[in-house]
Amino acid sequence: MSRLHVYTVHIDPSLPHPYEEARFIEEGFNWKAFIFGAIWALYNRLWLPACIVLAGDAIIVALAATGLSGISLFSVQLAWHMFVGYRGNDWVRDKLKKQGFIVADIVTGDSLLRAEQRFFDRYFAARDNAPAFT
User: Fold this and answer.
1) Which of 38, 44, 52, 113, by CA, is between 20 and 30 Å from 85?
2) What is the pLDDT of residues 91-109, one digit of tens each?
């Protein structure tokens, strides 16, 4: 049995066909943000979060210079990167909100493809059943 993923669907209402440019952001932990940190943030053009991640990493390097034990330093670094991993998708959602995107729906699926299919099935079903105003 596969795991069910939850996605928020963001659209830009200023576009003529906003649903064609829908963005799907998964809820939960972001492994790429956890592993790559600031590089992931820069790749996604998240400038402020990239600075925050770099500052956190710099603080951890400064802690290493104080003679903190290896296991303590590893624990602090792991906790920091866990925080980054859990906040990563929220940072992407915040960026989209600042760009004028709105949350159009929340969908689930065992993969991104299934979630997209479910969203567009609902969208086209609602659009086709809407009363025509002539």
Assistant:
1) 113
2) 999 999 999 999 999 999 9
Q: How far apart are CA 102 and CA 118, in angstroms?
A: 19
Q: What is the chain's alpha carbon radius of gyration, rounded to the nearest angstrom?
A: 20
Show the tokens assigned to 7.
């996605």
Handedness of CA 98, 101, 102, 106 (dihedral sign): negative
Decide: 6 and 27 in contact? Cβ < 8 Å.
yes
% of the chain exceeding 70 in pLDDT: 93
Q: Which of 91, 122, 77, 105 has its CA nearest to residue 10?
A: 105
Question: In Å, how far are 56, 71, 74, 122 from 64, measured between CA atoms?
Answer: 13, 11, 10, 53
pLDDT in tens, 39-64: 999 999 999 999 999 999 999 999 98
Rounded distance between C-alpha atoms, residue 109 and residue 123, angstroms: 16
